[in-house]
Fold:
Amino acid sequence: MERAGRLIVRMKLPAGAVSIEQLTCRGWGVAVGKRIARHTRPIGLIDRRLVVEVEDAVWQKQLFTLKTQILAKLEEVLGPHLVHDIEFRLGLPRRLPQRAMHPKTVDEADCIEDPLLRIIYRESRKRESA
Structure:
């Protein structure tokens, strides 16, 4: 696999067209693979430290143990000296899609505490509407 830096040089893009941060974030998925990329999201590059949002604490712990291997793979994909460290942060939990709740229609008769008066009120409403 050819380094991303070499590919960009070959494309002859204008200077500053692609920032180091953009290059690093795009190279993340290539470096770690599809499975890890599904559970992570690169946030940005701060002082050569790549900040990556992870799905939960289990992924955070596992990726922390793989940090040196991931850094080596990032160097292979992106080129040397772009990323010196990786910080794995817990991301906000994502809510699953939920069905829309239809508001229950409130009957004003339900506000009447006395059951007998409630029945009388409902019956009078029926007579009025008929």
